[in-house]
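Re: protoporphyrin IX containing FE structure - here you go.
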Amino acid sequence: AVPAPDLAQHSEPVTLPTDRRKGCPFDPPAELTQYRDEQPLRRLRFPDGHIGWLATGHSVCRAIMADARFSSRKELMHDPHMDIGDMEMPPAAPGEFLHMDEPQHGRYRKLLAGKFTVRRMRLLTERVEQVTADHLDAMEKAGTAVDLVSAFAKPIPAIMICELLGVPYQDRNSFQEQAATIFNSDNLDDKMAAYTAIQAYLTQLVAAKRTEPTDDILSDLTESDLTDEELIGVGFLVLAAGLDTTANMLGLGTFALLSNPDQLAALRSDPSLAGQAVEELLRYLTIADPMLRVALEDIEIDGRLIKAGEVIVVSLQAANRDPAKYPEPDRLDLHRKAIGHLAFGHGAHQCLGQQLARVEMSVAFPALLTRFPTLRLAVPPEEVPLRANPGIYGVQSLPVTWDKE
Ligand code: HEM
């Protein structure tokens, strides 16, 4: 007989370990790993006193992300990083479908999904190759040392998302800075000011697309039933997600490869390994973390009873290092098939831009390694500055050097 689930809520609440910069720069915080190995779903104390949950095991994280009884609505959340006091979390702005449930979420998602298909993104490969080659040329011209983040990791995905969406690339600088302030600053006034500036920029851009449509996603969307406000929200979400994610994977991923010379050599000698290598780097680094969900009703899961209103922090980085799913999970092994990793999330909100990100990475990593066979860090690894941002992890800069051929 199947034993009755243990619905006891007995585990002592812990607080969320967030700092990935201690110890190995690629590993989850040690406490997080320990919590997963003790209890893949356990009680968590939030900074505002809310007692919710922390999910760290691969199977329980996947189950939560797949279950529509767990909501993504922002206004129902408690923040796992800071106490926002009496301030209320606002609901999602129009178009900000990352923070919506069905059916609102599905309406936007359907409009956009057709624009990010595998087939369409593969068609972009040539353009990604060209943009990558241009940046490698510029690096070669610059001498024998650069900051790889500003010379390579940031601009390639930025050009791609700007072209796709129809944002003039010369406008990206101010946009990128404002987006960085919104996501990384802990000053609420600065965040609000940056948000207002981006809204103003997108308002005039949407107006321009309505009067003079160009060949891009934002112009296409002006033919849907979306209002200006919704178009601005969608534009903001897609642009922000496209600017800060792949860029951090390219920067941190290169750092990880340079720190694992055997893996670096494997990819350099066999560029056809790129697709598989990208999946393993996504698993190993899991830069977008954690995800938040809230129970809309009482839900029994993994032998626990989650009560309606309780918030769950879903730790994708802990899940992707779960030894129950991946043998020797803390080893970067480009030959492993990292199938089923959760780096792009799972379920209804699974990353919309994942095919684009895959194309960018599977072109950029091998091209970089082939062009610069002697590429190496220009500083000791412990001096590479890591991002403190709790949402998207990465390196702030990556000083690299190479020998002149
Ligand atoms: C959603 C990760 C690149 C656009 C997500 C989610 C994750 C993620 C984990 C799920 C969020 C949740 O369930 O709450 C990543 C990583 C990337 C990447 C690791 C790069 C390696 C991109 C790019 C775009 C993009 C290039 C631009 C098109 C989005 C959007 C969503 C999303 C619009 C929301 C989808 C929805 O709510 O239905 N991403 N992402 N992402 N991503 Fe990405």
